[in-house]
Write a structure and sequence with these properties.
Elements (H helix, E strand, L loop, with lengths): L1 E5 L7 H17 L3 E5 L7 H9 L7 E5 L13 H15 L3 E2 L5 E3 L2 E6 L16 H6 L3 H6 L4 H6 L6 H4 L7 H4 L6 H21 L5 E6 L14 H4 L8 H8 L4 E6 L6 E5 L2 E5 L9 E5 L1
Parallel strand pairs: 1-2, 2-3, 3-4, 6-7, 7-8, 8-10
Antiparallel strand pairs: 1-11, 5-6, 9-10
């Protein structure tokens, strides 16, 4: 079985469109039995997601899809949980993609499971010493100081903020573009409960000899990019959670995990499980090929 994996196509971004089209053409040319897109294929607007998925119409194998955080950004009248549970899987199905989060699949003895994964700020860079309240608001102290909607936060935390903190003026756009009825910690637990059930079912099935997992957010902190300047280091809080990795490693048949999100390639072996971050950027799209 030949499995092709890519991630972070960001087709709604103009700078990503040509690299994505080139990658899709190459994937359709080389072909395979399974294709998996591991998150952030596109953002809130529906048409860019459809247009991107249609680039892979010439791929004749089975096509799977995992949403990313950008996939849960909302249009007017939507909420992020609604997008996750119904809107995004329906858009994927229209283009012959199966959203793994809701439909784990077994092909020729190989189990495929997926999850968007999420974050709980546990990966935040402790050296920055930024109070947790800023991470929950998804805005760094320097940005909170200049943004009227975060004035109360900036005023409340003024005594705990240093001049170095105020030099960090970034924000995590999930805080602007999402409309999530759950806290980040609650949403992560919601996802992990589902993932744990799916993995347990795979372990219990006599039809499954090995399991592959596809998770957008990082399941192990070793994959978080290091030695980045403070504005980028602030984003480490939103890269993922070790709780994802713990849930995955409960599966005795797990052999591989693929992820994305950080735009930084990486490879680990964790207790005999191969963990691969595809590492696509906005400008350079990458793929991984797994032969089983």
């Amino acid at each position: 079985m030949k499995i092709i994996v890519t991630a972070d196509l960001h087709y709604d971004s103009i700078k990503s469109r040509q690299p994505t089209a080139d990658l899709a053409r190459e994937i359709c040319r080389i072909g395979g039995d399974v294709l998996v897109l591991v998150g952030d294929t596109a953002s809130a607007a529906h048409d860019p997601l459809r247009d991107c998925l249609k680039l892979f119409a010439g791929f004749t194998g089975k096509k799977f899809f995992v949403p990313g955080n950008h996939s849960l950004w909302c249009l007017s009248g939507e909420d992020s949980l609604q997008r996750y549970e119904s809107i995004v899987p329906q858009l994927a199905a229209e283009c012959d993609f199966t959203m793994l989060d809701h439909a784990p699949t077994v092909l020729e003895g190989v189990g495929f499971v997926g999850s968007v994964g999420w974050y709980d700020y546990s990966y935040r860079n402790e050296e920055l010493d930024i109070p947790l309240e800023f991470y929950r608001a998804k805005v760094a102290p320097g940005a909170a100081r200049r943004l009227p909607e975060h004035k109360d936060l900036a005023d409340r935390m003024a005594e705990r903020v240093t001049p170095e903190h105020l030099d960090i003026a970034t924000r995590w756009m999930d805080g602007v573009r999402m409309n999530m009825p759950l806290s980040d910690e609650q949403f992560l637990e919601y996802l992990l409960e589902r993932l744990a059930r799916q993995l347990k079912a795979m372990d219990a099935s006599a039809a499954v000899r090995q399991v592959l997992a596809f998770v957008h957010h990082l399941p192990f902190r070793e994959l978080v990019p290091q030695q980045r300047p403070p504005p980028l280091a602030f984003a480490a809080a939103y890269m993922g959670s070790d709780k994802i990795g713990h849930a995955l490693l409960e599966c005795k048949k797990l052999s591989h995990v693929f992820c994305g999100h950080s735009h930084w390639p990486g490879r680990l072996n964790v207790k005999g499980v191969e963990v691969i971050n595809v590492g696509s950027t906005y400008f350079e799209k990458r793929l991984e090929v797994l032969e089983l």
